[in-house]
Amino acid sequence: MEPIPYDERLAGAGGADIYNRFDGYSNEASELLKWSAANLETLERRIGIQKLSLDEIKSIYNNNQQRLSHLPVMRPVDGMILSNYGMRMHPVLKMRLMHEGMDFRANIGTPVFATGNGTIRFSGNRGTLGLLIEIDHSHGYITRYAHLSKLESGIRPGTKVNRGDLIGYSGNSGRVSGPHLHYEILKNGRSVDPIQYLFTDITPQEYLLYKRMGEEDYYAVNE
Ligand SMILES: [Zn+2]
User: Fold this and answer.
1) Which residues contact 61 (CB under 8 A, 6 or more apart)?
2) How far apart are the CA of 193 and the centre of ligand 1, in A?
3) How far apart are CA 165 and CA 42, in angstroms?
4) Which residues lie at CB < 5 A from ion ligand 1?
5) Rg of the chain taking only CA atoms, in angstroms
6) Which of 33-37, 94-98, 127-131 has the highest mean predicted lDDT (pLDDT)?
């Protein structure tokens, strides 16, 4: 939000002598009364302006809350990052290919969580991705959780989920060289780097390691 200009917050009173009702007292008392009344009025104006500002922040927060709860900003699984998003050497095909998501180390049966509120759009087997869940978060976002071993009961197309809900269990289905969770975020139909959405959920060390993976085809062992 735009900050409130400082002089507006101070709410200057202007020059008119609006305190002549205190003129009947001794000079000293009159000055003191005028000074106190002026200070009180200035404070009242400042409080009014700050309150308007806080009300505005509150309304922006309320309007965005619905959108924010749908954004995929959580780790989908508790496990270290194995492989990053981007171009890298494919471990099986031995050629440089685009890796459309990021991989987390996860033993078979590790709980996998919805990373934002949304609706299950697909759950089932899909080629090299193995057992897959797709969540539509609206606002243009879709997430994918691949190579699963099992779906949580009740997870089927149309099921509504909230951020943090258990949706399934990681595994090694599809074309993999070992068990892990492959996680994708699509924005308006195109894959984006999930690291950009995990900023509240990774340590600075992990972020640096992740950037290094991108430079060195680091840990290029999974799909
Ligand atoms: Zn992957």
Assistant:
1) none
2) 12
3) 51
4) 101, 103, 182
5) 29
6) 127-131
220 pLDDT tier (thresholds 50, 70, 90): very low
Q: What is the pLDDT of residue 163?
A: 94
The Cβ of residue 177 has, within 10 Å, a number of other Cβ atoms equal to 11
How many whole angstroms from 131 Cα to the centroid of ligand 1? 13
Interior angle at CA 75, CA 78 and CA 164, nearest 5: 95
Pairing of strands 190-192, 180-187: antiparallel
Q: Tokens 């009961």 identify what position?
A: 153
Residue 169: CB atoms within 10 A of its CB come to 20
Q: Is the pLDDT reported for residue 1 higher than 80?
A: no
Q: How many residues does the chain have?
A: 223
- Strands in 52-165 per DSSP E: 81-83, 86-89, 96-99, 102-105, 111-113, 118-125, 131-138, 141-151, 160-161
**Which residues lie below 8 Å from residue 223, measured CB to CB, with a gap of 6+?**
90, 91, 92, 99, 103, 128, 174, 175, 176, 177, 182
* pTM listed for this prediction: 0.69
Query: Does the domain formed by 81-216 have CATH 3.20.20.70?
Result: no
**Centroid of ligand 1 to alpha carbon of 104 (angstroms):** 8
The H-assigned helical ranges of the chain are 6-10, 27-70, 204-216
C-alpha of residue 99 to centroid of ligand 1, in Å: 6
